[in-house]
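Hey, can you fold this one?
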Amino acid sequence: MPDVRALSFNRPSAATVHPSLAQHTAQPTQMESLADAVVRLNATASQSEAVDTIFEIAISLIGAGEVALYTVEWKLAMLRLIGSRDIGAHVLVKMGAGRIGEAALTGKEYVVDTEVAPPGQATDDRLTLCIPLIHNDTPAFVLAVYGLLPQKRHLQKGDLAVVRFLKERSAPALLRFQE
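Sure. Predicted structure:
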């Protein structure tokens, strides 16, 4: 298959097509809806970009303060950290150990329904959300959310739709880049 990355396509900008569209062409810095999340996740070009997009979804749509993403290594019965934002998370987690390992083992999310703890260390008692990302009915990754942004004290009803989206749609976006 020929390498087409070097090809360029001359397409008119939205401003050229219609001046009123120019205001809508700027890349948003923050996702505003689940529809934005779907588009952005499906448009990722690498696994690291998919990881960053998942973090953006958690931060922008849920209000996550600190996040970590683990890949499930079933043959080793371990979870391996593949990325984190604003927190020093454990590099390895034993399958079934703590809420992260339990989420990987059972496929069930963990959601705190009380006021969220202030920022601190990556410990089970600080977890706000623990979301297994499912592929073929099996957890392939686990997203851990530690605390919420300062302006958000509690999870809200709409946040659960985002949790469901992440649980059901994120793993395939990450797995398509693995060999």
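Confidence is low (pLDDT under 50) at residues 1-29. Let me know if you want another pass with a different chain boundary.
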